[in-house]
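pinging the channel bc i need a second pair of eyes. not urgent but kinda urgent?? the chain im working w is below, pasted from the shared doc
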Amino acid sequence: MVCGDVNGDGAPDQAVLGYRDHLLLLAIRQGGQLQPQIIQFAIGGGVQQGVCSLPVTLRTNELVCDTEEGQLSGCKIGRGTVALSIEDGDCDPINLYWSHEAGGMVWWRN
């Protein structure tokens, strides 16, 4: 589990990884909310929305909204706001940030 302000509201949020039925699950719970946002990722190579292998590491990172591919949709840098990444050591990391347009976490890859 990692903690950090992912949505920019100044309160710590929690993110945790779990596994179910050959899927990697990421649960993100915002400070005061009871119901987490759940994002599923495949386990195994060849799938864009997946990790190549286990084990994986969940990390908080500095939020960067301007990438080589352009500005991330709905991304807003705020004081203390963090991004997340899921890394397996084999594939490019899955990068996640809070999209103020989507109203939740979204992911992208390099």
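so The longest strand covers residues 13-20. and The chain has a mean pLDDT of 94. — does that match what u expected or am i reading it wrong
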